[in-house]
């Protein structure tokens, strides 16, 4: 058992922060047993790991990150989605047939994520089986929780990335059946234009066995028009996936910028997850997603950096982007409320964490994923309230303020 002391702040509910000043977290076997004040009196024989004057917050969860695009971080963001895919992204992803290259990029990407406080990661890899297996192994070695998707693409792709449908399905099946304890495989049809109806149907059959799924949806208006022309039979974009059996309570839908209320209702009914990627949506001039509509409807929603369309692997920065986008929504339509810091923080922790189980909060029996934040000198000398210290870290902080990262009670040292 371990007893951690510090200023604890987390979001059990999205509406408000739970703050325990000079509190304790008791943990055993990587899980939270108890949180509160004065636990050192209750358990006098336990060694206290003293993080006094530090903030203890849950680890961040990134629901959408293209590990194979990390080498392009910050590049090509003056284009829109479909041109950006052709001019930058596909060319980069084709390189992941080379495992030496793959290892170098994956290693840097995961380290940068851990240094940014991300303990749980949902990855798109490339089409290549060996690269996806390597990514699973690296995640396991580094001690983070992860889902890794070998991407499926059997139409509208450059020759270097175009797969045979049978082989695409077989590799996916193999990875699902041979994944790792802490790095799970996930079914990953890239998006409708990249996957034939037949392949989507067969991936949907796999999903019906309880396997997780991730994909992109309704990110960009030209993309949506393309999907309409490919599937005139479908009611809407979501319906293409739904008819294939790909929308389940283990599905993550990235973007959802232009989803309609009808689509939101299906997402809610099926208990699917949404990965809100505000930085990427802005960078590729895709649009302003209205996360409030999803949160208020009770849809399960977390944040994604969406590297490389997103320019930062830091979920802390994506929290700020999410709030900014909601302010743009509010400026355009004053009836739309602004996302609060607690709502954005909730998405970054417990909202996305639900995809991994009991993750993203310090409630009893949650996995102990924890960041230790050393507030800046000014926060301490001015004796700032805990909430202000957190605000300052989120808006004006940097990764150097993160002095320790724990996943399932184990301190990560990969950076
Ligand atoms: N839609 C299909 N592929 C991609 C991708 O790699 N990134 C983003 N942002 N959207 C996509
Ligand atoms: Fe993406």
Q: What would you note in describing this structure?
A:
The chain is α/β, with parallel strands linked by helices. It has two domains: 109 residues, Urease, subunit C, domain 1, CATH 2.30.40.10; 297 residues, Metal-dependent hydrolases (TIM Barrel, Alpha-Beta Barrel). The chain has 15 helices and 17 strands. Strands 3-2-1-4-15-16-17 form a seven-stranded mixed beta sheet. Strands 5-6-7-9 form a four-stranded parallel beta sheet. Strands 11-12-13-14 form a four-stranded parallel beta sheet. A hairpin with a 2-residue loop joins strand 16 and strand 17. Helix 3 packs parallel to helix 4 and helix 12 packs across helix 13. The two termini are 26 Å apart. The mean pLDDT is 97. The structure holds guanine and fe (iii) ion.
Q: Quick summary of this structure?
A:
38% of the residues lie in helices and 24% in strands. By secondary structure, it is α/β, with parallel strands linked by helices.
């Amino acid at each position: 058992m371990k007893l951690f002391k510090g200023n604890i702040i987390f979001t059990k509910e999205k509406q408000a922060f739970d703050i325990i000043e000079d509190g304790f977290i008791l943990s055993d076997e990587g899980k939270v047993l108890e949180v509160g004040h004065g636990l050192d009196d209750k358990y006098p024989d336990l060694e206290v790991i003293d993080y006094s004057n530090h903030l203890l917050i849950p680890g961040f969860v990134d629901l959408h990150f293209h590990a194979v695009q990390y080498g392009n971080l910050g590049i090509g963001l003056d284009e829109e989605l479909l041109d950006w895919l052709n001019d930058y992204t596909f060319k980069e992803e084709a390189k992941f047939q080379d495992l030496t290259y793959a290892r170098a990029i994956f290693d840097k990407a995961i380290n940068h994520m851990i240094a940014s406080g991300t303990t749980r990661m949902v990855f798109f890899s490339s089409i290549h089986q060996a690269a996806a297996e390597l990514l699973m192994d690296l995640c396991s070695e580094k001690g983070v929780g992860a889902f890794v998707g070998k991407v499926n693409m059997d139409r509208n792709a450059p020759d270097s990335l175009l797969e045979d449908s049978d082989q695409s399905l077989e590799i996916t099946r193999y990875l699902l059946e041979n994944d790792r304890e802490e790095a799970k495989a996930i079914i990953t049809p890239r998006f409708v234009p990249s996957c034939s109806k037949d392949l989507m149907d067969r991936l949907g059959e796999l999903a019906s066995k309880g396997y997780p799924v991730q994909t992109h949806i309704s990110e960009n208006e030209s993309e949506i028009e393309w999907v309409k022309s490919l599937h005139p039979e479908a009611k809407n974009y979501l319906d293409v996936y739904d008819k294939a059996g790909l929308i389940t309570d283990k599905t993550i839908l990235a973007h959802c910028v232009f989803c309609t209320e009808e689509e939101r209702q299906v997402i809610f009914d099926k208990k699917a997850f949404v990965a809100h990627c505000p930085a990427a949506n802005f960078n590729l001039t895709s649009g302003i997603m209205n996360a409030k509509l999803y949160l208020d409807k009770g849809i399960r929603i977390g944040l994604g950096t969406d590297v490389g369309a997103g320019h930062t692997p830091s979920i802390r920065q994506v929290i700020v982007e999410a709030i900014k986008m909601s302010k743009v929504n509010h400026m355009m339509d004053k009836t739309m409320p602004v996302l609060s810091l607690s709502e954005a923080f909730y998405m970054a922790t417990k909202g996305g964490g639900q995809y991994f189980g009991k993750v993203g909060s310090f409630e009893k029996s949650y996995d102990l994923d924890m960041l230790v934040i050393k507030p800046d000198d000014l926060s301490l000398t001015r004796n700032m309230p805990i909430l202000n210290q957190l605000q300052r870290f989120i808006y004006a902080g940097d990764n150097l303020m993160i002095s320790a990262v724990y996943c399932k009670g184990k301190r990560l040292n990969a950076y």
